[in-house]
Specification:
Number of strands: 0
Strand content: under 5%
Distance between the termini: 36 Å
Helix content: over 70%
Number of helices: 6
Structural class: mainly alpha
Radius of gyration: 14 Å
């Protein structure tokens, strides 16, 4: 609902518990909603690094952040990782389609 308020809250939470992957993932979601795509990518990268097994949602959102910052190749890699984790994932397939990639060809 309110990404700016969420980001402010999460800044405090991350300061207190910097190794919580979920805090970094939620911060990435908030930053993405605010259009701060480069910072969002940083948060998603941290969330993935801190996770034993990252969720497809975080990997997908990292791809979205990459795409929005002009890092098309890296975005495609992330969406393909989502399909490895969750074959047939509709969000990843749609994101690849938006980037002009046929998921079936990969």
């Amino acid at each position: 609902g309110k990404p700016a308020q969420a980001a402010a809250f999460l800044s405090v939470a991350i300061a207190r518990a910097p190794k919580r992957a979920d805090f970094h993932s939620n911060m990435g979601d908030s930053l993405l909603a605010l259009g701060e795509n480069g910072k969002a990518a940083d948060e998603f990268e941290l969330a993935i690094a801190l996770s034993r097994v990252p969720s497809w949602h975080v990997v997908n959102n990292l791809g979205v952040a990459y795409a929005k910052t002009g890092r098309r190749g890296q975005a495609i890699e992330q969406f393909q990782k989502v399909l490895e984790m969750d074959p047939g994932n509709a969000k990843a397939m749609e994101n690849l389609r938006i980037l002009g990639v046929n998921a079936k060809d990969n």
